[in-house]
Design brief:
257 residues, Fructose-1,6-Bisphosphatase, Chain A, domain 1, D-Maltodextrin-Binding Protein, domain 2, 32% helix, globular, histidinol-phosphatase activity, metal ion binding, Inositol_monophosphatase-like, Histidinol-phosphatase, His_9_proposed
């Protein structure tokens, strides 16, 4: 936990010197798709990896921008320097740095840092939150919501749902939920852990998009799985809920259809 906070303290200034500035944007995708990356993404991940090499030299690293470095310990650090680069490049603060830890390939610890707003969410024995000027860290706790009709649903963007199955699932859930909001990336999951959102539905995630968020949500009282109810640590189609009863109801709705 101490090292993860140190990594966030190191990476934040690297990112912020580029935020809301004119910065070149590269497209990592082919075939007409758009997957942006900036010098802020790469600079932050480089700073984190260099610090890890000094602080935890035996641990492995899985990073979005520079790939995987094998380790000899049971631990792997899973890094997304800016989750929400699309938000970053338009000046929106709905992005964050994700620092996750796998122990024996299982999510063990997670931290989400938003250096612009001065907010940080992390998992220890319990999920916690701290903001600049906010005093002592506050405990995160999901809120009860058993019925989809009462739920607030969040997702990054409907265009990320592809094919009849994914689009149909989103439409069925959205048609029943009380309120649906788009945008947010990793920030949505942290708001779920804090009890402001009930359900996050996403598709085609990579491990670095979700590993750090799993322990935060689970230790706040929520549940995270794939759409089939499986292990979410490898990414894929993801459902996160603050209430296990809601989680079961949404899984049933998606899979029965």
């Amino acid at each position: 936990m101490r090292v993860a906070h140190e990594l966030a303290d190191i990476s934040g200034p690297v990112i912020l010197k580029h935020f809301r500035k004119v910065v070149p944007v590269e497209n990592k995708a082919a075939g007409g798709a758009f997957d942006p990356v900036t010098k802020a993404d790469r600079g932050a991940e480089k700073a984190i990896v260099q610090a890890l090499a000094a602080k935890m030299p035996n641990d492995g690293v899985i990073g979005e921008e520079f790939g995987t470095k094998a380790g000899t310990s049971p631990y792997q650090w899973v890094i997304d320097p800016i989750d929400g680069t699309r938000s970053f490049i338009i000046g929106s603060p709905l992005w964050g740095t994700l620092i996750g830890v796998l122990r024996d390939a299982k999510p063990f610890f997670g931290l989400m840092d938003q250096p612009f707003t001065g907010e940080r969410f992390w998992s220890g024995d319990r999920a916690s939150y701290h903001s600049v000027g906010g005093g002592r860290p506050q405990r995160l706790k999901t809120r009860p919501c058993a019925n989809l009709e009462d739920a607030v649903l969040a997702s990054t963007h409907p265009d990320l749902f592809e094919g009849d199955m994914q689009i149909g699932a989103l439409n069925r859930v959205k048609a029943t939920a009380r309120l649906t909001r788009y945008g947010g990336d990793c920030y949505n999951y942290c708001l779920l852990a804090a009890g402001f959102i009930d359900l996050v539905l996403e598709t085609n995630l990579k491990p670095y998009d979700i590993v750090a968020l799993i322990p935060i949500i689970e230790r706040a009282g929520g549940r995270v799985t794939t759409w089939s109810g499986g292990d979410p640590a490898s990414g894929g189609d993801i459902i996160a809920c603050g209430d296990a009863r809601l989680h079961e109801a949404v899984l049933t709705l998606i899979n029965n259809a």
